[in-house]
Task: inverse folding
């Protein structure tokens, strides 16, 4: 139970990311399903970006850059399948590839150019 | 025109992301540290921020199980009100066969939305509300195993609701779905000359999909929490009954909801991308029904097991005795959980499926009545010779048992093939499941709301109004649903906006009962709102005098600890801090 009941309200938990992970999913789904390019890209960016934030917050990654690159690779794979194989959902595929491209740029750019902070 | 449209959309989306980024930057500001590894498990590190932000941000960023429980609760109650208002419009339309208050197609839209709202936006979330708030307290855990996933699961629900209701909003040519909650193909694939190819149906399916993802995430979290986060003194042998039902329910969700999700995606692909999973020629109509009911029947037990847990937990407190045959209540819960996956085709007896298969589904459906009856007898025996105190939560528990018997017995009749062939798709079925979903599940939900109201809010409700609420609902629901059973015997088919004049009397009775429940609903709303704002403060951690009977439990102990520290702090304000009055 509550070891420090009196302090429970001072040491509470909060995280800004879950809300945006949850918002990213429907926005991305809507964009992809109805083939609305920008909405799909924005939704995917929001989703992957917030997940990255969460991963970093939980300490699974030190900086945001590598998770971003991993998401980029995943998006490239999915987008590639949609755009260039028999599935042939070309515009949707390009939307996903675009989101992947932006994430990759952010990830690689961050890794290369943002000075590393000393871990606290 | 096209180009400018695209451009504005791009700018809007860009702005949207920028605003979010800006807000996040501000939020991140009040974090004065670099988080260390936590592995996502509970503990005071990792996801912990220095303190809860205040105001609206607190509610948007919380990962505290009690806050999330309150959010689920508010959401579920709101959805219940929406679904209730929808049905009131429909019941008024049914007052008279010639009534033209709403169009037939609008009736169908409300029908579809009412069902989905009550099952997915009220039923599942209100259970998650109790489970989130109480399970960690009952098993002595600090929080859920995955607090952030918990928050994600909740935040998927509001967009889900908006999508499900999207057809009702004035959004261009989008119309509400009229597929009924079962989404039978080919109607729901948009085939043929109807209007169900409309994007409104796609939006609803997407919304449904989101709520399914949410439920699945929640269930994984509960399973992990109950298995790994129990305090040392909480063993499998003395795990409380409510947590048992949540564990079983989560198991059912884990197997049922992903299947619904996949079936819904297949449906979306059929509708939008030219696949033909559910093409009529390929037997797609039967395929959909099998997939849907393989999810659909477990879903009804997903909805009923935790309320049974609430009743098994609350009813003994006011009978002054421990739950009779505790072990058997647990076993029957598990048995129902397993059996519920073997009965789905009893919803399809009239489809012309193979008669040998049909017979086996009939046998299992009858068998599932046995564990349900075991529970019922255990509740009755617990009451027997007990020191019964008819408080409002207790009244709702007893009402639950009574209504569940009627719902269960009518179910057993439906499970018999020859009877079902006569009654299928009549109001009898509607009467059957409303006895269970409204008469039992909602009643148990309200038993829980009244029982833990002092804990959630720090205040007491007005007892008299609580009793008025109960009696209007008990009488109202029995008038309405009994009338439906009778209508079914008479051959009144379900899902119609109009009917033959010979059915008028019983439809009017059903509407009368519904109006009674509506009045009860107003009383309840008034009672809860006013009591929350200015009801008398609860003075100690035992508002139900459970200690007198030796029935005191963990969650009230926690409540008492919190109250005491709040008082020594001199902080009158703090008493309700977690009750969430400060939205
Ligand atoms: C005692 C166990 C039960 C049995 C044997 C049983 C049996 C049945 C049968 C055979 C049907 C199909 C009737 C038809 O469409 O022709 C049915 C429908 C239904 N039952 Fe039950 N039932 C039981 C308990 C429950 C419970 C506990 C719930 C809810 C929590 C429930 C909810 C429903 C619903 C929602 C439907 C209608 C589905 C639809 O067509 O829209 N039943 N039941
Ligand atoms: Cu069933």
Result:
């Amino acid at each position: 139970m509550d070891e420090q009941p009196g302090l429970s309200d001072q040491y509470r938990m909060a995280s800004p990311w879950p809300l945006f992970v949850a918002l990213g999913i429907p926005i991305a789904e809507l964009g992809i399903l109805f083939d609305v390019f920008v909405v799909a890209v924005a939704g995917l960016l929001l989703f992957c970006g917030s997940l990255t934030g969460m991963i970093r917050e939980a300490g699974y990654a030190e900086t945001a850059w590598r998770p971003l690159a991993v998401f980029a690779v995943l998006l490239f794979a999915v987008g590639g399948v949609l755009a260039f194989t028999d599935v042939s959902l070309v515009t949707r595929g390009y939307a996903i590839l675009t989101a992947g491209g932006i994430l990759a740029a952010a990830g690689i750019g961050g890794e290369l150019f943002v000075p590393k902070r000393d871990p606290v | 025109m096209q180009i400018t449209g695209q451009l504005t959309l791009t700018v809007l989306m860009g702005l949207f992301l920028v605003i979010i980024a800006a807000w996040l930057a501000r939020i991140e500001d009040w974090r004065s540290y670099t988080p260390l590894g936590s592995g996502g498990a509970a503990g005071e590190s990792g996801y912990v921020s220095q303190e809860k932000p205040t105001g609206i941000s607190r509610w948007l960023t919380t990962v505290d199980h009690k806050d999330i429980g309150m959010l689920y609760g508010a959401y579920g109650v709101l959805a219940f009100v929406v679904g209730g208002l929808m049905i009131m419009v429909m019941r008024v339309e049914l007052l008279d066969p010639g009534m033209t208050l709403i169009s037939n197609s609008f009736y169908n839209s409300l029908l579809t939305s009412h069902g989905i709202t009550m099952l997915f936006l009220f039923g599942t979330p209100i259970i998650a509300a109790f489970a989130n708030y109480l399970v960690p307290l009952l098993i002595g855990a600090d929080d859920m195993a995955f607090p952030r996933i918990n928050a994600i699961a909740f935040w998927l629900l509001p967009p889900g609701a908006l999508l499900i209701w999207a057809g009702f909003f004035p959004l261009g040519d989008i119309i509400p779905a009229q597929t009924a909650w079962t989404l039978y193909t080919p109607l729901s694939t948009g085939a043929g000359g109807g209007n169900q190819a409309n994007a409104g149906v796609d939006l609803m399916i997407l919304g449904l999909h989101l709520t399914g993802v949410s439920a699945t995430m929640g269930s994984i979290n509960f399973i992990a929490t109950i298995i790994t986060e129990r305090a040392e003194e909480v063993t499998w042998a003395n795990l409380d009954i409510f947590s048992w039902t949540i564990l079983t329910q989560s198991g059912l969700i884990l197997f049922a909801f992903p299947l619904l999700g996949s079936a819904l995606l297949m449906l979306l692909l059929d509708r939008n991308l030219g696949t033909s999973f559910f093409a009529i020629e390929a037997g797609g109509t039967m395929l959909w029904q099998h997939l849907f009911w393989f999810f659909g029947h477990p879903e009804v037990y997903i909805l009923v097991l935790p309320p049974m847990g609430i009743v098994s937990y609350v009813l003994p407190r006011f009978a002054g005795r421990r739950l009779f045959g505790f072990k058997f209540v647990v076993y029957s819960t598990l048995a129902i959980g397993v059996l519920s996956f073997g009965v789905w085709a009893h919803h399809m007896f009239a489809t012309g499926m193979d008669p040998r298969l049909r017979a086996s589904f009939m046998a299992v459906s009858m068998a599932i009545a046995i564990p349900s009856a075991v529970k019922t007898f255990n509740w009755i025996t617990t009451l027997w010779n007990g020191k019964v105190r008819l408080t409002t939560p207790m009244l709702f528990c007893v009402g639950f048992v009574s209504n569940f018997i009627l719902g269960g017995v009518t179910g057993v009749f439906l499970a018999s093939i020859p009877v079902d062939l006569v009654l299928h798709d009549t109001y009898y079925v509607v009467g059957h499941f409303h006895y269970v979903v409204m008469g039992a599940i909602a009643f148990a939900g309200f038993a829980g709301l009244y029982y833990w109201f002092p804990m959630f809010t720090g205040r007491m409700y007005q007892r008299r109004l609580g009793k008025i609420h109960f009696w209007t609902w008990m009488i109202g629901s029995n008038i309405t649903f009994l009338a439906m059973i009778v209508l079914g015997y008479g051959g009144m088919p379900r899902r119609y906006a109009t009917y033959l004049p010979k059915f008028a009397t019983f439809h009017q009775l059903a509407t009368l009962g519904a109006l009674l429940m509506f009045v009860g609903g107003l009383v309840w709303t008034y009672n809860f709102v006013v009591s929350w704002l200015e009801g008398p403060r609860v003075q100690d951690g035992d508002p139900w005098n459970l200690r007198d009977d030796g029935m005191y439990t963990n969650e009230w102990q926690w409540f008492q600890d919190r109250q005491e520290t709040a008082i020594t702090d001199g902080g009158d304000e703090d008493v309700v801090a977690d009750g969430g009055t400060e939205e």
Observations:
- Chain A has one domain: 17-112.
